[in-house]
Write a structure and sequence with these properties.
Blueprint lengths: L2 H12 L5 H121 L2 H36 L7 E3 L1 H19 L6 E5 L7 E3 L1 H29 L6 E9 L2 E8 L6 H4 L19 H11 L3 E7 L3 E9 L2
Helix pairs in contact: 1-2, 2-3, 2-4, 4-5, 5-7
The structure holds adenosine-5'-triphosphate (ATP) and magnesium ion.
Adenosine-5'-triphosphate (ATP) binds next to helix 5 and helix 7.
Length: 348
């Protein structure tokens, strides 16, 4: 019992002024008070214990949190590092996509150069023969014939010059294409540019796959004047879209052949002027783009082509190029019927 209460209790017991009843009542009160005091003391000890365990737990939690913070920091650093690596890989891939489209172009270019080269060779040969003839006529003194032959030779040389210049233009175009990103805007005849790349894409594909064939439709708006663009960049967009269109009709064609259905693979290219914009559209009657894929086609690396056949960068690069010209690249498609891509570029 508490020392103070014990003293009070002893005092009550020995008191001569209290009756036995009063003593009993007071003794009970003192004992009750002692009980209450003991309980309070016990509670206090318990609270103290809880407080100590809580403090220990808190310390542990803080330590654990610190661990977790460190782990997050570490994984953050790792993420940063792999992001850097990813960016490097991406730019490497973009570079190799550029090289790949250059490869596609080369086959087309070889075909395009072959034509003027044939002209140059043939006309040179004929001119040589004509000059030999001229020598004979000179010796015989037939001046009228000499004059006629000289005229023919002059005409031939003009043709040689014309075709030589054409080959020169093609090679220059090729060099421009391979020079990456240094492109500056210049005043360009859009119809000419589109037609040039259409032919390059077509012959490029034909030279890789002799069985490939498609009907080509062109509809150029002659009222289009020159437009300020980076020619090799817009050329690349056109090449990408046309290559995709040819791929789509070719795929459908192969499928229809196995089913014995009649189908004419057709790719149509058109230009248009609309108020302050020009539009270049590339349309095909392939199988269209399923809704599921439509949201993703402009994402880098999205492709449905078999591994090794597509990088999935064609449309994302095209999108960036058109955006850089303050333009828009839109797509309309119907499953099973075909797809139309529209490039819209402001004139000013
Ligand atoms: N004309 C089209 N018809 C049907 N699907 C198309 C057409 N154009 C694009 N696609 C779809 O969009 C995807 C992405 O096209 P994108 O040009 O970006 O890459 P890719 O053609 O697959 O590869 P890459 O152009 O790098 O060779 C294609 O794989 C195809 O599924
Ligand atoms: Mg493509």
């Amino acid at each position: 019992m508490n020392q103070n209460l014990q003293t009070i209790l002893d005092f009550i017991q020995q008191s001569k002024h209290l009756s036995e009843d009063e003593k009993a009542t007071l003794t009970k009160a003192a004992k009750d008070a002692d009980k209450a005091l003991t309980i309070s003391e016990f509670k206090l000890v318990r609270t103290e214990k809880v407080k100590r365990t809580t403090a220990i737990l808190l310390e542990e939690t803080i330590e654990e949190l610190e661990h977790k913070r460190k782990a997050i920091e570490d994984s953050n650093n790792a993420l940063q590092k792999s992001l850097k690596e990813l960016k490097a890989t991406q730019s490497q891939l973009i570079q190799s996509e550029k090289m790949a489209s250059l490869g596609e172009l080369t086959a087309g270019i070889a075909h395009e150069i072959q034509n003027p080269l044939n002209f140059v060779n043939n006309f040179s040969e004929v001119s040589k023969e004509l000059l030999e003839e001229m020598q004979e006529e000179l010796e015989e003194g037939n001046l009228e014939d000499v004059k006629e032959i000289a005229n023919d030779v002059i005409q031939n040389l003009e043709k040689i010059l014309h075709h030589g210049q054409r080959a020169d233009g093609i090679v220059k175009g090729m060099l421009m294409h391979s020079r990456s990103n240094s492109g500056e805007k210049e005043s360009v005849d859009i119809n000419n540019l589109v037609d040039e790349y259409l032919r390059l894409a077509y012959h490029g594909l034909r030279s890789k796959d002799k069985s490939f064939n498609a009907k080509l439709e062109t509809n150029y708006d002659d009222s289009i004047k020159t437009v300020n663009v980076v020619p090799q960049d817009i050329g690349r967009v056109v090449l990408n879209l046309i290559t995709n269109a040819f791929y789509a009709v070719n795929e459908k064609n192969l499928l229809q052949e196995t089913q014995g259905d009649k189908y004419e693979p057709t790719v149509s290219v058109a230009t248009n002027t609309m108020k302050n914009n020009i539009e270049i559209s590339v349309k095909d009657n392939g199988n269209g783009i399923p809704q599921k894929a439509l949201d993703k086609i402009f994402q880098p690396f999205f492709t449905t082509k078999p591994t090794g056949q597509g990088t999935g960068l064609g449309l994302s690069l095209s999108y960036d190029i058109v955006k850089a010209h303050n333009g828009e690249l839109k797509v309309e498609t119907k499953e099973g019927q075909g797809t139309k891509f529209i490039i819209k570029i402001p004139i000013i």
